[in-house]
Amino acid sequence: MASPSSPALPAVGGRQSSGGAGTDFLTTRLEPVVAWARKNSLWPYPFATACCGIEFMSVAAPHYDIARFGSEVIRFSPRQADLLIVAGTVTDKLAPVLRRIYDEMPEPKWVISMGVCASSGGFYRAYHVTQGIDEIIPVDVYVPGCPPTPEQLIFAVMELQKKIASGEASRDRRSARYAAERQK
Amino acid sequence: MSTLVAPSLSPAAEKLRERLAASPAGGNANVVDADLPVVETSPESWPAVARLLRDDPDLRYDLFLDLLGVDNLSRKGQPTRFEAVAYLHSLPRNEHVRVKIRLPDSREPSLPTVTDVYPAADWYEREAYDLFGFDFPGHPNLHRILCHDAFVGHALRKDYAPGQRWYCAESDLRIPDWARETDERAGHFETQTLSIGPAHPATHGIIHVLARIDGERIVRAETMIGYLHRCFEKMSEKQHWNQVVPYTDRLNYVSAMINGVGYVRTVEKMLGIEVPDRGRLVRTILSEFSRIMDHCVCIGANLVDIGALTNFTYLYQNRENIYGLIEACCGARLTVSYVRVGGLSIDVPEDFVPRCRRLLEWIPEFLRDVDKLVTNNRIVRNRLQGTGVVTKEQAIAWGLTGPMLRSSGVAYDVRRARPYDFYDRFDWEVPIAQDGDNFARYLVRMEEMRQSLSIIRQALDIFPEKGPVNSDDWHVVLPPKDAVYHDMESLIYHFKLVMEGIRVPAGERYEWIEGANGELGFHAISDGRGGPYRLKVRPPCFPSMAAFEKMIVGGTVSDMIATLGTLNIIAGELDR
User: Which residues neighbour A46 within 8 Å (Cβ) at sequence distance 6 or greater?
Assistant: First the structure.
């Protein structure tokens, strides 16, 4: 059992084993333990559309190895994933597809917007490009870069882990555009 | 004035004029000489001219390369607002021709389809319909292809605002009529319609395939693309010539360097400037490394799809190693933006040659490992051999180029057919295969990587230690920073280039090189201002994807997955 001061575990109270006799126990709230488990086994769904998808492949490949952060179980079914990594440009034609995939993911779920195209449309200020995926889905971590380096994406995963550990609630699930669509 | 024939035509153009004049079909077509022989014709006679160009034993333009629209709204000296431009290549005669079809001014410009002459024209005509609103009477499936189906207007017309978007809901995405109907036959199972994509692990990017399956066999299929249409051509019309380079990197982002080289070569030809040998050798070396990276990803991902996961890690390590070299040169790993019109953005690092030589030692080891694991592996052979077959005739009719065409037995490689840079000085082979199946494409790509290594080795042998990488024409290339700070004239050149861009003489040009997927062409039109008036890229995987729905019919769904992997579809290039 890790010691109470271990940074990997949520804040706990309890009694240290004093050499065999007695029952060891620790007390904590359920939420931090669940959050601790969740943040260390994020299962990503890579919504890889463009150049950023190739850099996502780098992150998953042995050299950068996202397995070190417990996120190597890459799922291509949204029903089995809790982290949506949107890697690449999302166009207006693709936006309903992305929304559908997000809706199909079970709670709790988080979203990383990888690269400037997914975050803001990037330098494609154009007639067919969604100007940031937060038009249609909520985003937890934005990663700049065109494409971001693998280190940047790993940093984003670590930031997300901090966010999950802190228990901070995800952003409002209803984006403006999504709400408009539901009202129709 | 269009009947005026220039006094001396090039031999190729002269021959075209003779043959066209000899036939009733080519009666009112006119031949002029530009960077290529140009045939000018009217919409009515275009199908007849196309048939003549294809069938005449002295012409035999058998490969349909490209068809694009041009809007002359704000371009001076053009007789009509719209024109369509087609590019054809003759494999037996190794020549390109441009066909220009001027469309009479009307509310709905239209020209007849040539899909019955060149099946490859199918998707190109849909693209011209989508982006320019050209009507193609007689086209079998004239729907929007790149923009979504709720789109209003035609985006590449000059009077369309670049930022005007249209809302698209899921119900707006088009499902073909045939896919909505069930197909029941007596004494037989009901057929099913299977939707593969747009987000599917085997589609490598965002491609939507609708397939009707009868048991395990595909009986009909249709591919829907455009999910990554990010308006490359419209965006480039708003930039200076050099500012387009980052956009070209994001066409085929798996081998970004090659796109940039192809694009700046076009602009350099329009300007008539030469890049020093050292600069061109750097471009050649990094382009060949990019080709290796591209093939590595194609083969690796394809093998993952059919269940051989290990090879991906071997092949991907090559990429990481090459990234190290590219990052040392320009600071970026993937989207390099390294080339500039007239040279490179910055000279290579001092240890460029030793770094390249180290890679030349590493890469063959990884290739040997993959070769041992895969080439004689029975499972791989069972999956790849005899599936996704494209015959030689089909490959030509569908307008395929690159490894796709070469694995069907046609030795057309732009580096050999029309050598640019130093390719005629190197000793290398164009690998071909005869079977035209998925395994043939695997073998051709593996051998091309070895040939690329050989090319790089020879290029390093003649690589000059010192010397400029950029042209010294300060009307095109930024003067050295030191001179800009201390010399008024250089400062002015710098200011003009940054503020106004390069002044490219008015005119148009098509230049083509061998991309990793095949012939990568750039058709650029300048009206004399600092940026392109129109820039069209001829994406090599566009015709491959168009052929896909025909290739998979009759095969099983699992063959379809294997076939899609060997096509090497890069969505950035496909949808632009």
Answer: A53, A56, A60, A74, A76, A85, A87
- Residue A5 binned pLDDT confidence (cut-offs 50, 70, 90): very low
- Residue A15 pLDDT greater than 70, yes or no: no
List of chain B residues whose C-beta atoms are within 8 Å of the C-beta of residue A126: 162-163, 230-231, 234-235
Question: What are B505's two structure tokens?
Answer: 């003489």
Q: Which residues of A touch B161 (CB under 8 A)?
A: 127
Q: How far apart are CA B484 and CA B487, in angstroms?
A: 6
Contact criterion met (CB < 8 Å) for B228 and A49:
yes
The verdict on a CB contact (< 8 Å) between B168 and A123 is: no
What single DSSP character describes residue B373? I
| Structure tokens given for B301 | 């991902």
CB-CB neighbors (< 8 A) of B297 in chain A: 54, 57
**Structure-block tokens of residue A68:** 């070190």
Yes or no: say if B257 and B548 are a contact pair by the CB < 8 Å rule: no
The domain spans of chain A are 40-183
pTM assigned to the model: 0.89
Rounded mean pLDDT of B16-34?
78
Query: How far apart are the CA of A168 and the nearest CA of chain B, in angstroms?
Result: 30
ipTM of the shown complex:
0.86
pLDDT score for A35: 86
Give the CA angle between residues B69, B74, B79 to the nearest 5°: 70
**Total beta-carbon pairs less than 8 A apart between chain A and chain B:** 129
CA B552 from chain centre, in angstroms, equals: 22
What are A74's two structure tokens?
């890459």
What is the average per-residue pLDDT within B320-333?
A: 91
Least confident of A17-21, B7-11, B274-278: A17-21
- Boundaries of every domain in chain B: 11-132, 232-575
CATH of domain B232-575: 1.10.645.10
Query: In whole angstroms, what is the distance from residue B473 CA to residue B269 CA?
Result: 14
Look at B231 and A127 and tell me if their CB atoms are within 8 Å.
yes
**Architecture of the structural domain at A40-183:** 3-Layer(aba) Sandwich (3.40)
Instruction: Name residues 97-156 of chain A within 8 A of B (Cβ).
Output: 97, 99-101, 117, 123-129, 146-147, 149
The C-alpha torsion from B407 through B410 and B415 to B417, rounded to 10°, is: 180
Residue of A nearest to B164 (CA): A127
Residue A48 near chain B (CB below 8 Å): yes
How confident is the model over B29-54, as a mean pLDDT? 86
Question: Helix, strand or coil for residue B531?
Answer: coil
- The residue type found at A154 is I
